[in-house]
Amino acid sequence: MSVHFVAEVEEIPEGHRKIVQVGKRSIGIFNIRGEYYALLNYCPHYGAELCKGIVSGTTMESKVYEYIYGKDQEIIRCPWHGWEFDIKTGCSLFDEKVRAKRYEVIVQEGRIGLVLGASSSEAKGEQ
Questions:
Q1: Helices in 1-127 by DSSP H: which ranges?
Q2: Which of 47, 60, 80, 104 has the highest local Cβ count within 10 Å?
Q3: Beta bridge partners of 39
Q4: The Rieske domain covers which part of the protein (predicted)?
């Protein structure tokens, strides 16, 4: 496990994102209502820079002629072909097996860190 501190919390206000480079990896960090999430900046479809896509919400499961909107600011749409992914989980909206690579994020003393190669419990020192 390794933690790479890549930004200060002030750099990513709520509803914004920042794309950082960690070694060969380009990673997008998103602030959704004060919580941080990170995705590899690579769409599993054809490799577009996923984290540069539009962030929005989606329609939720509902009855016929009923429209329920949800996940506001939690969905990212690939800028090339429109594939949509849940920023919090990395799962695509059309098939849970299709996922964007996500990374654990930790915040320590106002700094945002990306955990590479371990689960979040390991990163926080939990056993």
A1: 120-123
A2: 104
A3: 28, 102
A4: 3-114
CA dist 31 → 2, 13, 37, 80, 97 (Å): 21, 7, 7, 23, 25
Tokens of 75: 């969905």
Asked if 17 and 37 count as a contact pair (C-beta separation under 8 A), the reply is no
In the DSSP assignment, the letter for residue 94 is: S
What Å distances lie between residue 120 and 14, 19, 24, 112, CA to CA?
Answer: 22, 20, 21, 13
Mark 43-77 as b/e (b = at least 16 C-beta within 10 Å).
Answer: bbeeebebbbbebeeeeeeeeeeeeeeebebbbbb
The residue type of 75 is: I
| Cβ proximity of 39 and 87 under 8 Å | yes
Q: Determine whether 30 is exposed, middle or buried from the number of CB atoms within 10 Å of its CB (0-12, 13-18, 19+).
A: buried
State the pLDDT at residue 125.
45
CB proximity list for 88: less than 8 A, separation 6 or greater: 32, 37, 74
